[in-house]
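USER: For my understanding, would you kindly supply a protein sequence with its structure tokens?

ASSISTANT:
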Amino acid sequence: MKLTTFDEADLPSQPKHDPASKDCRLVGDILSRVGDKWSMLVVMTLLDGPLHFNELKRAIRGVSQQMLSRNLRALERDGLVTRTVHVGVPVRVEYALSDLGRSLSGPVKALSSWAIDSGPVIEASRKVYDGAHDEA
């Protein structure tokens, strides 16, 4: 069998991704927001419709009031969540996904499905890795 040699210049050019580019930084910034544990749970919970703060807090077990407030503000700032204040006694605040937030539902559901489907393989890989590194 004859081996063929080639020059890298003969290869089709591949787009290079510069991690320092503006686009890469933007993607990283957005993924850190939507990939955050609590933000993901807020988005998934609001897929069923608007909720008041306490309803949302009850629906997302384990989230503190401060963490939920912080995440809702960040999601609102990014345009993913809308906040509506209903005047009355007491004042009630309702949160809902914006159109942009709803457009995130497809990727979030796809990522959730991937995580559920891949979970057993990832867990098995972790056990193998941990076993190999515990012996070292």
